[in-house]
Amino acid sequence: MVIAVLGPAGTFSHEVAVALTGAEPLLLPTISAVFVLAEKGEAIGIVPIENSEAGGVGPTLDGLCRYDVKITGECYLPVHHTLASFVSIEEVTEIYAHPQTHEQCSEAFDRLDLPVIHTSSNAASALKAQENRQAAAAISEAAAAYYRIPIILRNLENSTTNTTRFIRIEKNGYSGEDAVKCSVLIDPMKDVPGLLHALLSPFAERKINLSRIESRPSGRGIGSYRFFLDFEAGALAEDAINELKKTVPIREFGCYPKLLVQI
Amino acid sequence: MVIAVLGPAGTFSHEVAVALTGAEPLLLPTISAVFVLAEKGEAIGIVPIENSEAGGVGPTLDGLCRYDVKITGECYLPVHHTLASFVSIEEVTEIYAHPQTHEQCSEAFDRLDLPVIHTSSNAASALKAQENRQAAAAISEAAAAYYRIPIILRNLENSTTNTTRFIRIEKNGYSGEDAVKCSVLIDPMKDVPGLLHALLSPFAERKINLSRIESRPSGRGIGSYRFFLDFEAGALAEDAINELKKTVPIREFGCYPKLLVQI
């Protein structure tokens, strides 16, 4: 089965797909397009869901709401940003960077004290640096290699623990025995005091470790939310889900293992 | 006191500041820069905190974590996107749009079936449409007026309830009697089963309406979070905060009124 990820070449999604499978993935223009192919069963998708600095990835969370897919694995990619340019750091006159890359490297950028021009993607930064040879691009090592731009500074990121979590999405759920985590989407449809507290009770009572909660707009107007929950897999988790189902609509993305990325 | 917002001219922040004060605000290059001036007491900042389609605004949530400011008001701006161009819709060959604008107008874009080129901001889209007269920019009505580009299509947004919530940030807290909402940041510093459930108990027990919960990365590595809570103001809310303070570190942003935007 083909692996589909957000392109263009040199994205972190591209990097993680190659690391997981050893093969070149299909590169698509949007995260939604990855979900469309996964829902049809025409591809296995790999999409970023959260970053330890920037938080949740909106288009992926919205894709999970909109498309009928299951989560069949997760993996973690340490994120390193580099500065790539055809001239030395002393000669660089400006830096091209995606706003999120800028946010993740803000301390190094402040020290460099050069004008920063925002672009629409890390690949766009690389292409700009190919055109304007006095400039540098803040991109991944993989992107610098792909676009053949020399790396002049490494580890620009503010945090040494900067990590992005990816999920594998497929038409059908995971059925192996080694699942470690489960994910659900709860859409309460109404807003009453104590609601979220009540939704968490089935987990708290069973001492199930809730590894993540993320609220997303419900699409029914401001102040109305849906909740993504991730929690540890196991018999107790099934119990908790069954109890929750009695009170609120739940979508289950299934339980899944951790995939190892070797880079 | 000067009002500071994220620029350039024609952003929704610019529009809301003019609507609230009737005066031209100081336009700054980043949301962080707005926080810096507000923390020093040199400006009143107005920054977007959440959108009913796209969710929380990361740089604002991170600014609240990093800078010592209070929230002194909130207001809601209905968001309308328009297509602006010097040629008619039949002649348009491509559309410039910020990725978030693209996301909020995805259904209209699908119907138009034109190539979409992503830009770094709505203002950048407007400037591109000024340069390339065969193109259109997906921007606000205020931006189209500011950059003097004719509007050729209105209400591109998927959702008719598309709304952005803004907060007013200042060095000192609000002390009026008409506060309706309070905001706090909880940083649990550790992760134990049932923790979030326990954090919500003081509110649930008092039947206090929790209007919003948003998790943000703690900066201590992936899987570690801080929580923003918004809840209704009042004596019971003070009680709940005092109880919470006994168990976890809390930052209080204060209680504040709803400001009316007249557009």
UniProtKB/TrEMBL annotation, chains A, B:
Record-level GO BP terms: L-phenylalanine biosynthetic process
Sorted keywords for this record are:
Amino-acid biosynthesis, Aromatic amino acid biosynthesis, Lyase, Phenylalanine biosynthesis
Q: Which is one Pfam family of this protein? A: PDT
The protein here is known as: ACT domain-containing protein
Provide the Prephenate dehydratase domain boundaries. 2-171
Which intervals hold domain ACT?
184-263
Protein's pathway? Amino-acid biosynthesis
* Annotated InterPro entries: ACT-like_dom_sf, ACT_dom, Preph_deHydtase, Preph_deHydtase_CS
Output the Gene Ontology terms for molecular function.
Answer: hydro-lyase activity
Tell whether Acetylation is among the UniProt keywords: no
Q: Report if keyword Kinase is assigned.
A: no
